[in-house]
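Render this sequence as a predicted structure.
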Amino acid sequence: MLFDFAVVAPENRYKLLVSTVVPRPIAWVVTQDLEGRLNAAPFSFFNALSQEPPLVALGIGGRTAGDVKDTGNNIRATGEFVVNLVPASLAEQMNVTAIDFSADIDELAEAGLTTAASARIKPPRIAESPVALECERYMMIDVNNDRSIVLGRVVAMHVRDDAVMDAAKCYIDTPKLDLIGRMHGRGWYARTTDRFDLPRIAVSEWAKRKAAE
């Protein structure tokens, strides 16, 4: 079945993308406005793109035309944000912060979460999250009147101590993080506990396999 995006309506393009590009990591973003009020919200249009410079990308959609949510407005105003990652144990709290609260409501407090100071930027991180990326706005692209793409430069990373296998070599025990990803529909998520090992094949090894056929 061919879906020609030149004729597919935007709302249906969304359905097609989120039901096939899975699982997607979740960026649990904390921002702070110019008055110091905190905002927290999850986004699944998110991933890491580059190690030099260290960049992550975040797609922020608005509730209505011309509105890129409090997260986008705060990043635009301050240039700083923290991407926290979501373990299975915090799925319910993450879901609370996805509620469309008004700008004066502290989502972190509503979800019963606490914060910890960041090292390089003003917005704090979620203390309960096993991974937090402190980011500075690298570039902000206004795709249309209700969608922005943020490129953030990671300036510092926090990883829970018991998940660091070797700090000097930057070896992380990824399974211990027990992170979840976004799937399709209104409420489907995936755990990262179901894994299989598939090492990359060296050219020399591939040549041996071909010769043995």
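Summary. Residues 10-20 form the longest helix (11 residues). The radius of gyration is 19 Å.
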